[in-house]
Specification:
- This protein is mainly beta.
- It has one helix spanning about 130-144, and strands spanning about 15-25, 30-35, 40-45, 55-60, 70-75, 85-95, 95-100, 105, 110-115.
- A five-stranded mixed barrel has the order 1-4-5-9-6.
- The radius of gyration is 15 Å and the shape is globular.
C-alpha cells in the first residue's frame, strides 16, 4: 500500500483524520516517505543539537503548495516510529514560508494535530491552548 496515495485521509464517520509519521520525536535525522518504493528514506541530518520536538509526518491524499503532501506535527509527549498511522484531530496550523538559497520562496504550512486517544489533553482544542513555552519551542524549531 502506498501510504500517500492509497490511505484514506478521513477516519470512518469523519471522527478525525490520519497522519503518517515520517520522523519520530527526538530524531536528529529528517526522514521522508518515498512514494516509488513505499519506504522511509534518510533525508538529511538536522543541525547539531537540534531534534524533532514532536512526531512529524504528512496527511495522506493531500497536496500542499510545495507539491508534497501537507506536513503535520503531532503534539504529544510520546514518540512513535516512521510509518505509524495515527488517528488525530486538528488543533491548528502554522503558516510557513520556506526560503532556500537560489530558489523562490514557497509556502510549506504545518498542520498541528493531537492524537484522538490522547486523554491527557482532551480539553486542548487549539494551539493557543498550549503553554507559551511549548509554542515558543515549536517556533524556535522551525526557525532553526
Amino acid at each position: 500500500m502506498n501510504l500517500q496515495r492509497d490511505l484514506p485521509l478521513l477516519l470512518p464517520d469523519n471522527a478525525g483524520l490520519r497522519m503518517v509519521v515520517e520522523t519520530p520525536k527526538g530524531s536528529g535525522i529528517k526522514f521522508s516517505y518515498d512514494e516509488t518504493t513505499c519506504t522511509f528514506l534518510w533525508s538529511r541530518p538536522l543541525v547539531a543539537g537540534i531534534c524533532f520536538p514532536f512526531d512529524f509526518g504528512f496527511l495522506p491524499q493531500t497536496l500542499g503548495d510545495d507539491g508534497d503532501a501537507l506536513d503535520a506535527m503531532l503534539l504529544t509527549d510520546l514518540g512513535s516510529y516512521p510509518g505509524v498511522v495515527v488517528p488525530a484531530r486538528v488543533i491548528g496550523a502554522l503558516r510557513i514560508e520556506q526560503f532556500r538559497d537560489g530558489q523562490p520562496t514557497k509556502r510549506n504550512d504545518r498542520i498541528m494535530l493531537m492524537p484522538l486517544h490522547e486523554h491527557r489533553a482532551e480539553d486542548l482544542v487549539e494551539v493557543a491552548g498550549l503553554p507559551s513555552r511549548v509554542r515558543d519551542e515549536i517556533e524556535a524549531f522551525f526557525l532553526a
